[in-house]
Design brief:
The complex is a heterodimer of chains A (984) and B (107). Chain A is α+β, with helices and mostly antiparallel strands. Chain A contains 25 helices and 52 strands. Chain A folds into six domains: 156 residues, 2Fe-2S iron-sulphur cluster binding domain, sarcosine oxidase, alpha subunit, N-terminal domain (Ubiquitin-like (UB roll)), CATH 3.10.20; 212 residues, FAD/NAD(P)-binding domain, CATH 3.50.50; 64 residues, Arc Repressor Mutant, subunit A (Orthogonal Bundle), CATH 1.10.10; 145 residues, Probable tRNA modification gtpase trme, domain 1 (Gyrase A, domain 2, 2-Layer Sandwich), CATH 3.30.1360; 91 residues, Alpha-Beta Plaits (2-Layer Sandwich), CATH 3.30.70.1400; 97 residues, Beta Barrel (Elongation Factor Tu (Ef-tu), domain 3). The chains are: A alpha+beta (984), B alpha+beta (107). Chains A and B meet through helix 22 of A and helix 1 of B. Chain A: Keywords: Oxidoreductase.
Chain lengths: 984, 107
């Protein structure tokens, strides 16, 4: 059983005990503990159940590669599942719960899966639940969904805050072990702007545990002095608890910093996502030890050899009293020495190699430990904890030659460099046969914007596994024990029969065994990427850090090809999981996207406007009075505008000034009609098409002076149209002398609409707005009352109408002045819905309703707005294409329901027969449909096959339910057909 | 995420500061052009693995359009240059030739 040792522990502070709970049980640890070290220190060897077979599982590793020891942390809104105990720092009051079992960790019904493992092989989904079809949905899927998956999900919104920050540097060094420190020192001394980041809270990496000499000093002393020097450099930034999640195009590195996980609710941002732009990235990310594949290698108490010595040296935790060490390399002997130094027992060292004479092995032998050479573990005994191991010949088939009692197994299958960052952006790997590992190929680095390598790798991450190699690569002398070569061991014993392979785990987190990968190979999965998906090898939250190489080796063996021929799966960011909170950061709620406000917004808010989003604007849809429905409010606003006077905040309307000697020529290309001939002082409605010929935007153009035009665009289209203009001016007609500027936000614009609008303007006084001076489609400038106004006589409602533009700063005051003066005239504000209904009553089209990116002006009966005189305008050539001139295109008509009802939005008019896809043919669709309080019934516009030739014909539209709606095809102008009202 | 240098304002910026605009150096065909010419102008686009010329706009910066010569495979940026040209400038061509001797050339 694991326990806390009475002395030692370089990372813990025994003066600062911390209390926490595991499944409600009170436990204690120390400051500096991880959850894993505290759990082990408290004797908790079994910490969870496995994903598929619900096998008891314990802590395997001491770092980011941990596959098993995931717990739920916290409660309620701060509950978070799948927290890796080996990298989660212990804090006072931490509440942890084990996962994936019911009803309890000790007694789990799901463990029955472990008995039926033969029926749950790789791909069992596809094989087992084929028929009957309904059973999948109603029986199998709910059961599988309930039993699969790790951890639960919090129901409440995340109460914490997160942030994102940019950083720029010449050199980013990832990893704060001795190689990273040495690289940072070198770059720092060269005067580069250096960032040095380390994912754990501690500098120095493995070296303080593994020992050795650097530059003539004890390793820890060298680390301490390196930290002092680095801290003193102003050009070096050092941060711990910051993980480099991914290396992306052109040196873009995502970093994930843990700020306040140990102090929940203290108000600081919990995590910070760094967007680091690095001129060059040096990865010093170390290496990860591989497990060995023997039967029962997942029983709680079986751990990586490096983890066993980490727990002893770093946290003064003994994983067991009697440990069997099983290895294929010399490095693991360091664990035996650490165990002996702590006063614990090494029951035996089981070395798969036939002979062992390295310095480390000799040192262990010299201390009286039995070293069994050429041996392997046939199986681990025990279920919820190790009780012993059966020893066999590694070369054999698992026949036990001996049984050894123990409560901990420390295993080492060699080391794999952490090549994730190198690989994320295209860095290639090469297979090192002697060390049985993939290492970065320095000749094929990931390349940056200039085509040269943007990353280099140092230390163990580069495959320089020993201290002297790692530091030697950086030009620093270092001494560590010489190590004899390892012998690759992918299966233990080499001839393990089915019964053992069924219990030899490769991917602990997804419960993938040696037998699963071999089955996949037999079933024809030759590509490693296919095998990965079929078996789920390496697809869990640890992304196969621990045993992907073991899996590749098994697959290669099954396929009878060398490992490099199989290759690796793709390394994908993030290196370890990052919180969705950090990805979202402040980009949520009101800050998700900016809200554009007109100068009159506060008035609308105060009046309780019901809002409609329009682009990034929010416009009043209507202004409901107390107790009034939205529909009633809209009808009231329309009736009042048509009878008295209404006011609309039209500030969102796009206002683009086009100026210059060639401005007229330019606008003639942009608009379908002629704008160069527009006299100064007059307004003209115009259409804009794209080069496909489709109608894109519309609006009224006013000519301000000889070489200046003001183009009004739709509210949503202003930015796009301005960009469109600039595109043509900069990229096609760059020799034309034209300037454009988007003045949308510089002006407030108020539409004063209705028979009493002139009277209202006259009450403000100062300008002559009579029919004679300011007739329909003219504009004028002057002082309206005290306001600097430009007034356009234009109408989108069919009524006598003025649109008044004033500098934005005067907008609210003008609105209020008009409201005050208009009170006696019955003035009311109206919203966008009244605007829509009134324009539909007049048969005016709306971009986005009557158009959808496939409609040309000719479809909408707007031929009058297409210049016959111009040889060219944008879209003209496209409108000559055969499909555009097809007489059978759907065309705009008005629609009047026979029963007065409103045709539902989006209704289609079915026609006889079916198309090639077996769908009903259609002959038209509704584009705008409203209740018209002016006409007193439903009105609509729609595009109908040969519509204009079918006036008076009644056709059917789809209704809300099965019932069809009968509508008569009519002229789209429902109100004031002769336009007398707007012209008074 | 790419970094590009805007040749108009000189700023080196992130891809998110720019808006892509498709293939560069298209020749516009208007009224009077044949159906084939117009179809080519409107729809036919190159999609090479390797050297490519693209339109970009410094949308959240100076607002100017510019052109970029880029390798779509390695993401190497050979050059960015002003949009007011109907074909890549000679120095840009030379730069690409120097780095990609096997490149078949522009057009």
């Amino acid at each position: 059983m694991s326990t806390r040792l009475s002395k030692g522990g370089r990372l813990i502070d025994r003066a600062k005990p911390l209390a926490f709970t595991f499944n409600g049980k009170p436990m204690r640890g120390f400051a500096g503990d991880t959850l894993a070290s505290a759990l082990l220190g408290g004797g908790q060897v079994m910490v969870g159940r496995s994903f598929k077979y619900h096998r008891p599982r314990g802590i395997v590793a001491s770092g980011a590669e941990e596959p098993n020891a995931l717990v739920g942390l916290g409660r309620n809104a701060r509950f978070e599942p799948d927290q890796r105990t080996t990298t989660t720092e212990l804090f006072e009051g931490a509440e942890t719960t084990s996962q994936n079992h019911w009803p309890s960790l000790d007694f789990d019904i799901g463990e029955i899966n472990n008995t039926f493992y033969k029926f749950l092989p790789a791909g069992f989904y596809y094989k087992t639940f084929m028929a009957p079809r309904a059973a999948w949905k109603h029986l199998f899927e709910p059961i599988i969904r309930k039993s699969a998956g790790l951890g639960g999900v919090p129901k409440e919104a995340d109460p914490d805050r997160y942030e994102q920050v940019y950083a720029h540097c010449d050199v980013l060094v990832v990893g704060g072990g001795v190689a990273g420190l040495a690289a940072a020192l070198k770059e720092g001394r060269a005067g580069k702007r250096v960032w040095l980041i380390e994912q754990t809270p501690n500098w120095g990496g493995r070296t303080p545990v593994d020992g050795g000499q650097i530059d003539g000093h004890d390793a820890q002393n060298w680390i301490d002095s390196a930290l002092v020097e680095l801290s003193s450099m102003e050009n070096v930034t050092m941060r711990t608890r910051l993980m480099a999640a991914g290396l992306h195009d052109h040196g873009y590195v995502i970093g994930y910093e843990n700020l306040a996980d140990t102090t929940p609710g203290d108000g600081r941002p919990r995590h910070r996502l760094w967007r680091i732009r690095a001129g060059h990235t040096i990865t010093a990310t170390g290496a990860i030890e591989r497990p060995l594949a023997f039967a029962g290698n997942d029983v709680p108490g079986v751990m990586l050899a490096s983890a066993v010595r980490d727990y002893i040296v770093n946290w003064a935790v003994s994983p067991g009293d009697r440990t069997v060490l099983v290895t294929n390399n010399d490095d693991a002997y360091r664990t035996a020495l650490a165990i002996l130094d702590a006063g614990l027992t090494v029951s035996a060292v089981v070395d798969a190699r036939e002979e062992t004479h390295g310095a480390l092995a000799e040192a262990v032998k010299a201390r009286g430990v039995r070293v069994l050479e050429g041996r392997g573990i046939a199986k681990v005994l025990g279920r919820k904890g190790v009780s012993g191991v059966e020893i066999c010949a590694q070369a054999g088939e698992g026949g036990a030659v001996e049984m050894i009692d123990c409560d901990c197994v420390a295993m080492s299958g060699g080391w794999s460099p952490v090549v994730h960052l190198w690989s994320h952006c295209g860095g290639k790997l090469t297979w090192d046969d002697a060390r049985a590992m993939f290492r970065p190929d320095p000749n094929r680095p990931p390349t940056g914007a200039d085509g040269t390598g943007m990353a280099t790798v140092v230390g163990a991450a580069n495959g320089d596994l020993t201290l002297s190699e790692a530091m030697g690569g950086l030009g620093i002398g270092a001494a560590s024990e010489e190590e004899a070569p390892l012998a690759p061991v992918w299966m233990m014993p080499a001839g393990a029969p089915d019964a053992l392979r069924f219990k030899s785990f490769l991917d602990y987190q997804n419960d993938v065994k040696v037998s699963d990968v071999q089955l996949a190979a037999r079933e024809g999965y030759e590509s490693v990427e296919h095998t990965k998906r079929y078996t789920t090898l390496g697809m869990a939250t640890d992304q196969g850090k621990l045993s992907n190489i073991n899996g590749l080796a098994i697959l290669s063996d099954a396929l009878g090809q060398p490992i490099p021929a199989t290759g690796t799966t793709t390394f994908r960011p993030p290196y370890t999981p990052i919180s969705l909170g950090a990805v979202t950061a402040e980009a949520k709620g009101e800050l998700f996207q900016p809200l554009r406000r007109t100068p009159i917004q506060s008035w609308h808010e105060a009046k309780g406007a019901h809002w409609e989003p329009v682009g990034h604007w929010r416009r009043p849809y209507c202004y409901p009075k107390s107790g009034e429905s939205h529909r009633d409010a809209v009808n009231r606003e329309i009736t009042n505008t048509r009878k008295n006077v209404g006011m609309l905040d039209a500030s969102t309307l796009g206002k683009i000034v086009v100026k210059g000697p060639d401005a007229g020529k330019f606008l003639d290309m942009l608009y379908t009609n002629m704008m160069s001939t527009l006299p100064v002082g007059k307004c003209r409605y115009g259409l804009m098409c794209n080069e496909n010929g489709f109608l894109m935007d519309d609006g009224v153009v006013a000519r301000l002076d000889e070489d200046t035009w003001l183009c009004h665009t739709t509210s949503g289209g202003a930015d796009h149209i301005h960009g469109w203009m600039e595109d043509w001016l900069q990229c096609e007609w760059w020799d034309w002398k034209v300037y454009t500027t988007n003045l949308t936000e510089q002006y407030a614009q108020i539409a004063v609409v209705g028979p009493k609008s002139r009277e209202l303007l006259e009450r403000l006084g100062g300008m002559d707005v009579s029919k004679e001076t300011l007739p329909f489609m003219k504009w004028t400038e002057g002082k309206l009352g005290t306001f600097d106004a430009r007034i356009f006589r234009i109408s989108f409602s069919g009524e006598l109408s003025y649109e008044i533009a004033v500098p934005a700063s005067q907008g609210l005051a003008l609105w209020k002045a008009l409201m005050a003066e208009g009170e006696a005239l019955g003035v009311m504000p109206y919203g966008t819905e009244a605007l829509h209904v009134m324009r539909a009553e007049k048969g005016f089209i709306m971009i986005g309703d009557e158009t959808d990116g496939t409609v040309i002006p000719q479809d909408l009966g707007l031929n009058w707005a297409l210049s016959k005189k111009k040889t060219d305008y944008l879209g003209k050539r496209a409108q000559e294409r055969s499909h555009m001139t097809d007489p059978n295109r759907w065309k705009l008509v008005g629609l009047e329901t026979l029963d007065g009802s409103v045709i539902p939005d989006g209704s289609h008019a079915p026609a006889d027969g079916f198309n090639d896809n077996g769908q009903r043919n259609t002959q038209g669709r509704v584009t705008s449909t409203y209740y018209s309080p002016t006409i007193g019934k439903g009105i609509a516009m729609g595009l109908v096959l040969n519509g204009p030739d079918r006036m008076g014909e009644v056709i059917e539209f789809t209704g809300e339910g099965e019932e069809m709606v009968k509508a008569r095809i009519v002229d789209p102008v429902f109100y004031d057909k002769d336009g007398e009202k707007q012209n008074v | 995420m790419l970094t590009l240098t805007c040749p108009c304002c000189g700023v080196i910026a992130e891809e998110t500061e720019f808006a892509p605009g498709g293939e560069a150096h298209l020749k516009r065909f208007g009224p009077g052009s044949s159906d084939d010419e117009f179809e080519g102008y409107l729809f036919a686009r190159k999609n090479p693995k390797g050297v490519h010329f693209e339109r970009w706009r410094h949308a959240y910066g100076c607002g100017k359009w510019f052109l970029a010569a880029r390798d779509t495979n390695t993401l190497e940026v050979f050059a960015t240059y002003k949009a007011q040209t109907t074909e890549p400038p000679a120095d840009v061509i030379a730069k690409i030739k120097a780095k990609r001797p096997d490149w078949e050339g522009y057009k």
